[in-house]
Write a structure and sequence with these properties.
190 residues, alpha+beta, Ubiquitin Conjugating Enzyme, four-stranded antiparallel sheet, two-stranded antiparallel ribbon
């Protein structure tokens, strides 16, 4: 087994601790389990998105989104690529307007995928520690946040605890996930 496959395998088992939580469920959509190379995340957190109404853009509430996480061949040397599939994409300083995630901290190869995902989820909640103000991906979202950041009704956008499964529950998820011989790719083709 290669080092990359060992890392993919470790990440898969680590990700089981955040599978089927109130705030997140996910499916591996590419790779040979447990060496998953792509995940489809169904996120259930309150955040904000732009909506168009009669030619005007307004910031509105969104209660969830779907995100694809891709682990390129160069992973873990390069960061996971995270793209929001839901429209409209989240309106946040750490997210480009086309829905690509721009992490507030530099990627480190020793960071686990689970921890990276949890940090991404914290951005969706507008965690003030993770608001990128020096080089934001979305300047308009940063301006909006800076104008409203003292409004306790807006921030954080969601207070759901990002808790983890027990080791026994994660192990059970792992056993059930490995019972399938095939994996469905992100386009739904077997």
């Amino acid at each position: 087994m290669t080092d990359r496959n060992e890392r993919l395998r470790a990440d898969f088992y680590d990700m089981l601790s955040i599978r089927n939580r109130p705030y997140l469920s996910w499916t591996a959509t590419k790779g040979d389990l447990p060496c998953a190379e792509e995940y489809l995340l169904d996120i259930r957190l309150r955040s904000y998105a732009l909506s168009a109404d009669h030619g005007r853009y307004t910031v509105g509430v969104t209660h969830g989104c779907t995100v694809k996480v891709t682990l390129w061949d160069s992973y873990p040397e390069t960061a996971p690529y995270i793209k929001m599939l839901s429209l409209p994409p989240v309106f946040h300083p750490c997210w480009y307007s086309k829905g690509v995630y721009c992490p507030p901290r530099k990627w480190r190869a020793d960071c686990s995928l689970k921890d990276y995902i949890l940090e991404m989820l914290r951005t969706l909640r507008y965690d003030p520690e993770l608001i990128e103000s020096d080089a934001p991906a979305n300047y308009k979202a940063l301006d909006w946040y800076l104008k409203h950041r003292d409004d306790t009704a807006l921030f954080p956008s969601d207070t759901t605890e990002l808790s983890e499964n027990s080791p026994q529950t994660a192990e059970a998820f792992g056993k059930s996930a490995l019972c399938f011989d095939e994996i469905v790719d992100s386009w739904g083709i077997k």
